[in-house]
Design goal:
8 strands, six-stranded antiparallel sheet, two-stranded antiparallel sheet, alpha+beta, 133 residues, 2 helices
Length: 133
């Protein structure tokens, strides 16, 4: 997890920005597999925040991702574009290397000893084709 992206989606590894909602309830803890909402990375790229391990409240997941983005934007994260691990409110956050982002869509991960969340790039919509053409 030491690589960093360069270019448009480059800083997608630095997850978070503005909370857009939590599909599983902000106060209650949700388990692995739940989606908490959409936010933006430090590079203003939209990402979906998902719980991948343990139980986490969506409000905590979104807060950690937002704080991670602020740290990257303000230059508090070492590495090219913030690729090094960094502490965020008791969590450790780090961006994934470019090949992994391209193959999985996972931009970054934040974890504690018992829980993990991941920022995932949304799958682009497929343009509609006109059958008459």
């Amino acid at each position: 997890m030491l690589g960093v992206l360069a270019g448009g989606a480059a800083l997608a590894a630095g997850a978070a920005g503005v909370l857009a909602g939590c599909s599983s309830g902000a106060a209650a803890g949700v388990q692995a597999g739940a989606t908490c909402g959409t936010t933006r990375t430090a590079a203003d790229v939209p990402v979906i925040i998902k719980v991948t391990k343990g139980t986490v409240s969506c409000s905590t997941a979104m807060q950690v991702e937002n704080e991670y983005a602020v740290k990257i934007k303000s230059g508090q994260v070492p590495g090219n574009g913030g690729g090094a691990p960094v502490g965020v409110s008791g969590w450790t956050c780090q961006g994934y290397p470019t090949p992994e982002v391209l193959s999985t869509g996972n931009a970054s991960q934040c974890h504690t000893g018992s829980a993990a969340i991941v920022a995932v790039l949304p799958v682009p919509a497929t343009p509609a084709t006109n059958a008459a053409d």
